[in-house]
Amino acid sequence: MKAGLSYRKREQIAGGFKFVILLVFGLLLITPFVWMVSVGFDRTANVTMPFPPKLVPKHPSSFNFGIVFENGSLIKAYLNSAIVTVSSVLIGVSASLLAGYAFSKGRFKGKKVLFVVVLCTLMIPMEPRLIPLYKLFNSVHLLNTFWPLVLPSLISGMLIFLCKQFFDQLPDTLREASQIDGAGEFTTFFRIYLPLAGPIVATMIILAFIWSWNDFMWPLVVLNDKELQTVPLYLASFSLENGTRLGGLTMALATMSVLPIVILYLFLQKYIIQSIALSGVKGE
Question: What is residue 60's three-state secondary structure?
Answer without folding.
Answer: strand
